[in-house]
Amino acid sequence: MRRAILAMWLALGALGWGQAPSQVALILPSHDPEAMALGHLWAHLRDLTPEQIVYVRLHPEVQGRVRMSAQQFTDTIWDPVQEALDARGLDGILAWVYGPGIPTRVDGEGLSLSLTGITWARNRIPAAHAVQRGTWRSPLFSAPQPGRPAPALRGLDRAAEELGDAYPLPSMVLGVTGRRGNTPAEIADALRRGRASDATRPEGAYWFVSTDNVRTRTRAGQVGPAAEALRAMGAEVVEADRFPRRQERLLGVMTGAAIVNPGQENHYVPGAIGDHLTSFAGAFDAGGQTPLTEWIRAGATASSGTVVEPLALWTKFPHAWVFVAQRQGATMLESFAATVACPLQLLLVGDPLARPWGSPLAARIEGGPEAWRFVVEPDPGEAFAPRVRAWVDGRPVEPGRLPPDLAQGAHELRAEGVLPGLLRPTLSAQAEWFVPGPRAPDLTATRQTDGDWRLTVRLGAPPKRLVARNWGRIAAEASPGRGTQEFRIARAAAGLGPWRWQVEAHWPDGTVTRSLPRRFEDSAGS
């Protein structure tokens, strides 16, 4: 007979996604407390696990800089992140997401790419002429071309299955700080807007603003088909020769101009995209043109800009179809992936999982640890029943069952239901529970008035070692005795919030048991 499993069976549900939160890796610079705080905020908002977060240590000479070399990218980011994900068995990662604080431009021999672009190309830098002329094509691009209708929109999950080894690695940056960047508070607000946008199906207007220079002419032929498709979907579309001012509900703005003022008393709906196709919107060590970060400051959830002179080549910028892809139910990153033909010099910034037109379906885990089931509401019917996959503590398990003889302490069940179709919306739900026993750490975490933390751990037997972790990073270690143990973690060592505290007990026989995580959200970025 199985031991009684107690306890806390806490089930959490979520709305439908295109790409699932479990399919992203989050890369954070360990030397930058503000960048880690913003990354932790996004992980908190999107229910990421600590295993999905990889902390990298940049070389001191590039910390706080806009640029790094291709070799520095390989040595301090690409190789360490790949090794960490392989060691953790995370083979279902479909996209990388970067926190602030990492150089946004990568310089090779006579060629510069964006941080997101070199990741897109899986660190295999294409021929210089293909990048410079914008002829390199992402296999994910699916916007309409003259004389040809748009291919069906594919989600990243479906694209990865179809492309196999040819699948690129889509990427976005959560925000940019520093010179010409945003404040941490502005980035935090944008990430919260992204989360608040999910499945809201907001009302508002898309603006396509024409100017008399080549920056508009580059995409002029795209506007008509995109506007027609949006109107057919019930959207309001404004085609104008002036920038919007005092507009209450902007769903997206697309123009071509070196200088724009996205504010002008405008209100951007959560999930909105702003873009002004100019040479240096993503070049934060340049000047003379409006940086993409002004869109974030004004209230947009995402924007983009090139990090080096791109020439007036439409392939290097979001196609006007980006709004159509988003309205079809794609996440922010899927929308960009489908509509940027040559993303190698383009920096994509914002919440990659924001999905205003996502599925209104929601999922939860019902039942207890002995037997559980994945429940979708409202019931989509047999024809649209999801294909369920599940993991316990990161290891795949058969849906509805749990592994026998689970160790004492805390465990996490994560289940996802993939709906049929090309976009493959994914529903996600989680549950945590606790197996009692003398080896099960019981954790209480308290923030003190001076900002320090006190972690109190109760154990029925003395382990070999206790480790306190915040979002997976070791914050303190001890060699404890029997009974109640305490950690006092200084404010500087604990970092900025949100916090996710968990204690591991390491035993002489090699067993590791864990406490239930204790989560605390602070005003990160404020």
Keywords:
disordered N terminus; alpha/beta; 6-stranded mixed β-sheet; 526 residues; 28 strands
Topology, please?
Layout: E1 6-15, E2 24-29, H1 33-45, E3 53-56, E4 67-69, H2 70-87, E5 95-98, E6 105-107, E7 112-114, H3 115-120, H4 128-132, H5 156-163, E8 171-173, H6 184-197, E9 205-209, H7 214-217, H8 220-232, E10 236-240, E11 250-254, E12 268-275, H9 293-298, E13 302-306, H10 322-327, H11 332-339, E14 346-350, E15 362-368, E16 371-377, E17 387-392, E18 395-397, E19 409-418, E20 426-435, E21 442-447, E22 453-459, E23 465-470, E24 473-478, E25 483-489, H12 491-494, E26 499-506, E27 512-514, E28 518-520
Parallel strand pairs: 2-3, 2-5, 4-6, 5-8, 9-10, 9-11, 11-12, 12-13
Antiparallel strand pairs: 1-15, 1-20, 6-7, 13-14, 15-16, 17-18, 17-19, 19-20, 21-22, 22-25, 23-24, 23-26, 26-27, 26-28
Helix pairs in contact: 1-6
What would your notes on this structure say?
The protein has 526 residues and is an alpha/beta fold. Helices cover 20% and strands 30% of the residues. The protein has a seven-stranded antiparallel sheet with strand order 16-15-1-20-19-17-18, with no helix packed on it. Strands 10-9-11-12-13-14 form a six-stranded mixed sheet. Helix 1 packs parallel to helix 6. The protein starts with 5 loop residues before the first strand and ends in a 6-residue tail after the last strand. The N terminus is likely disordered.
